[in-house]
From TrEMBL:
GO terms for molecular function: 16S rRNA (guanine(966)-N(2))-methyltransferase activity; nucleic acid binding. It comes from Anaerostipes hadrus. Coiled coil: none annotated. Keywords: Methyltransferase, Transferase. Gene3D superfamilies: Vaccinia Virus protein VP39. It comes from the Bacteria. Signal peptide: none annotated. Its EC number is 2.1.1.171. This is Methyltransferase. The keyword Secreted does not apply.
Length: 185
């Protein structure tokens, strides 16, 4: 796994041994960032279920002002921190060593909002709908926030009270679902 573009372009990132995490393949990461590339510079990025941190690091490399990484597994946390130091992007990063629900509550109390929220939870465990329902009600997500969910092809991402699916990009083995909050009149 490597950084595709930006200030850390071509640097190889460490990954975690075993099957606990599935780093997003470089070509899928490149496709994703090609779709959002003009919105990344100067943005604030949230990477939930960060794994090795590859998505948030890609956002920082491409000019995001700040990225938050949420991960609770200790081996993954070490990997994220090592990758941030190696790419020299650690000064723009906040690593939250906790579960996603607790992290969202912490960020709400700090009045942090995000331009992009990316999540790649373990597949087939129902985390997508659970976390999206929290984000739907959360102040960390505004009408300008793009929420991106990486999931298996057979995972259905529904509309929520405010968060609505605006786009789905399918690949051979997985997909990205994009959601945004509807503007209330």
């Amino acid at each position: 796994m490597r950084v595709v573009a930006g200030s850390a372009k071509s640097l190889k990132l460490k990954t975690i041994e075993g099957m606990e995490t599935r780093p997003t393949q470089d070509r899928i990461k490149e496709t994703l960032f090609n779709m959002i590339q003009y919105d990344i510079p100067g943005s604030t990025f949230l990477d939930l279920f960060s794994g090795s941190g590859g998505i948030g690091i890609e956002a920082l490399s491409r000019g995001a002002k700040e990225a938050y990484f949420v991960e609770k597994a200790k081996p993954a946390l070490r990997c994220i921190r090592e990758n941030l130091r190696y790419t020299k992007l650690d000064k723009k990063a906040q690593v939250l060593a906790t579960d996603v629900n607790s992290a969202i509550r912490q960020l709400e109390t700090k009045n942090v909002t995000f331009d992009h929220i990316f999540m790649d939870p373990p597949y087939k465990k129902g985390f997508e709908e659970e976390v999206l329902s929290i984000i739907d009600r959360s102040s960390i997500c505004t009408e300008d926030t793009v929420v991106i969910v990486e999931s298996s092809l057979d995972t259905e991402i529904p509309d929520f009270e405010k968060l609505k699916v605006i786009r789905v990009k399918e690949y051979k083995t997985n997909k990205h679902t994009f959601l945004m909050k509807t503007v209330e009149d």
